[in-house]
Amino acid sequence: MGRWSTVRRTTLEALPVPADRLSAPCDPGSLGFATTAELVALDGVIGQPRAVEAIKFGIAVRRPGYNIFVYGPAGTGKRTAVSHLLTAEARGRPEVDDWCYVANYDQPHRPRALRLPTGWGPILAESMDGLLAELLAVLPQAFESDVVAGRRDRLVNEFDARKDALLRDLTQRAKAQSVAVVQGPNGLSVMPLDADANVIPHEAFAALPEERRTAIAAQLQALEDELEATLRQVRAVDVEGTRAVGQLERDVAAAEIDARMAPLRERFKASKEAKDWLSVVAADMVGHLDLFVGRDEGSVDGPRAAAPAPAAIVRDDLALRRYRVNVMVDGSRSVGTPVVVEPLPSLPNLVGRIEQQQVMGALVTDFTLIRPGALHRANGGYLVIEIDGIAQHPLSWEALKRALKTGVIDIGPPGEAASTMTTIILDPEPISLTCKVILIGDTHTYFALHDYDPDFAELFKVGAEFDDEMLRDEDGCRLYARFIASVAARDGLLAIDKAAVARVIQYGSRLIEDQQRLSTEFIAIADLLREADFWARQSGHPVVTAADVERALAAAERRADLTREHVQAQYERRLINLATKGEAVGQVNALTVVSRGQFEFGLPMRVTARVRQGSGEVVDIEREVELGGALHSKGILILWGFLAGRYLPDEQLAVAASVTFEQSYGQVDGDSASSAEAYALLSALSGLPLRQDVAVTGAVSQSGEVQAIGGVNEKIEGFFDVCRIDGLTGTQGVAIPAANLQHLMLRQDVIDAVAAGRFHVWTVDHVDAGIALLTGLPAGERGANGRYPNDTVNAAVERRLAAFSARRRDAGDDPASPSSSSRRGRPRRPAPVDPDDGAEGRQGRG
What we know:
disordered C terminus, eight-stranded mixed β-sheet, 846 residues, five-stranded parallel β-sheet, disordered N terminus, alpha/beta
């Protein structure tokens, strides 16, 4: 079995990595095309089979609670995938019903919700506007027609005659008693007459004998009572006449309304709700004829002409709004079921709002001012919301959950959620909801909602997790090429030749740091293609070439690497102490990664260790000054566990050690420097110097295994750049964990230097291999006698530790006592933890 076989045993030597293993280039000839113009554009989502399966499942299950939360790293195509899958599904599903709000004449504050077949809402609204315009014209004409006028005149004359007869009879009876019925400024009254039938003046009446005046007064009182009774009869006849005329007008109006309403009833007879509502409307119109006829010139709504009123007048007429239709959902606007994406899910945008209108200085509202929200537009279909957007509106999140739990959309009175007032302006009937909600967010939010919101798991039963990588095999490269072709076709880019596609595929592996995987961060890939197209056009190329892709990568790096340039200048000016030649005791070059937005670069740093006789404690200086994160401190404690388990296993280690990153002024986290810290400690304990032309990285287990880390490419390149400042010596290089071999996707200049023997990359799988590389001496294995061989690193370390223990025993301080080891390997005080910050930048793989 070869030394680079996939299955390897732990070895005590560092293995050099040949140049052809430092990257995984893609052979353009294996792609099978000349340019992307030959490829069929991709129709669908690549690299996310598990997520696509979950989304399809969530769409197919038509049960409450099976809403979908799509989560995963940014840029992996979550929105595109959701849009593609929902659009395809929506086309094959039936159209949704229309929803309208109309007036509720029994409870005006409670508008009615009408459910109508698809497309009927706008038709009903237009029909009602047309009906109103027509009635405004024909009803006044009908009342002014000769037939109706004649019938009205006959009724008026008939009742006038009855009133005249009553008054005439009273007048005759009064005259027979020498009393006249006189019309005065205050109405009818009775006055005495003289022998010549003339009204007796007041002065003449006062001059009459008292007996005569008393008799006449009694007579007048009796006739006044009769007059009052007659007037009551006249008023009753007048009311009866008014009712008769009104009934005539209502009959005429009812006939006109019914004649014009009949086609609407016939048109909407398939909808019982619409048919019943039209009957209620007809009855209300007959009871409110003043809205159509008899408007005064000075009225608020103004006069009505005989010609049909334009639709604009009908819409603007406040009084006539009671007969209009407010279409909330028009199902005919979508092909199949609706797919609604709500970019700003505020409470009004989600569940709708009730607007108000200023009229003569006052704010008024009615059902025509109810506006739909995203839930209305998506009713019967799918609603897509970004979780970041809804997180900014807590009321929206609660309203969304309430709607999904109750199955209705309840708009409620305006300002209800934030107001303490109980006065209800409008409280529309809720609209039943059948909607599949798809939330798009990140992994952290998904699990946080699972942990802290008890409703979340009940309402969002389907989680669709997107991966940030896909397999780089023949099929994967073919799909990647088709994706590249799709971006080119969609964005109007130049065709991309096969060499450029191969370079983009290689970049996809670099993004994910894996020779056997491709990144599914498709936003970054699409950005690279657009920028390469720009440089190709700048150069006058007919197609995008590999050189254009390289130029785009270099230009993007230059735009982002100002910080790296400044740091490298500090190395060049010796402001940062880092030796790339020679040897030193207790000192080693570690590798870290700095993140600046989307740009990352390696930062070599010196790690030093100091030891002395002590009580078995390690001081993590970064932790002590609160610059070390939890993962870094964990690495230190694991390292101490390795030392304590390996050396003098039957004794407590009588040593005190301190470890630090030199010239580190920011947060440090991650455990990828624990191997460097191990080498520095072993050097300090053994007194053996370490090579300064070799940088190391890797996490250490308690058994001494060197484990995989992240950012391996940036770390190697960072040390290479620093070595190149002083000039490559041919001995310099980087030791990485053996497990990270498959993650190497190095820059071409580093590969060329390794091929020329001017730089090196080694793999190690154990601390023993690394320390042997750094010291030039074998680490040594414990023999049958329980001791390490002389002239080995481990023997020198154990001798020093044994000397520390002996001196403590000679001083009367037993290192095995509990009191002397109570702080063994513990940091002195807790510190804030920020595992995403600092020089280490990322958590190691594995």
